[in-house]
Amino acid sequence: MQSESKEPLLNQNLKAILVLFIAVVIVSLILFRNLFFQSTYLLKSFGELSVEPEIAFKNNKPTFLEFYAEWCEVCKEMAPKLSALKEEYAKDINFVFLNVDNQKWENYIRKFEVNGIPQINIFDKEGNLKSTFVGQQELLTIKESIDHLERGVEPQEKVINSNFSGIKENNNHDVNPRSHG
Description:
The chain is 48% helix and 17% strand. It is an alpha/beta fold. The chain folds into two domains: 27 residues; 129 residues, Glutaredoxin, CATH 3.40.30. Helix 2 packs across helix 4. It is elongated.
């Protein structure tokens, strides 16, 4: 008889602990959402706040062009660094961010031979390509390239880091008998 009365009490304690645990997890996610989702949010905001490439190449300012994807882990890692870079140089340089998953940018992807992301291209104010960076980069390396550009130094460099994401084939425009439901 005693065991029957202890069993519901045990179930109630277990339920209370489970509810408390779930509440702590939810509160933690809410409080620390910036830590967990900051990089993804930054990538989305880059695309939304980006200067249109057609304008950037015609307004007589140097241009920073990054090809990225929201699924790219290296892009997510670099997002906070690039956000700081954008804040520092926003007055002097166009910042253009193109999502490789958007068909709208396919001509730029081909033109600049993007086969790994993130890829950063830096152009002078006349639109001449001066530097290309593929993969994860140190912020200092990119800043040095921008500073060379501002001082008129002419280093054309291509820096490829082995830590990058390959571009996924975009088959959104392919049509086959099953693609129409």
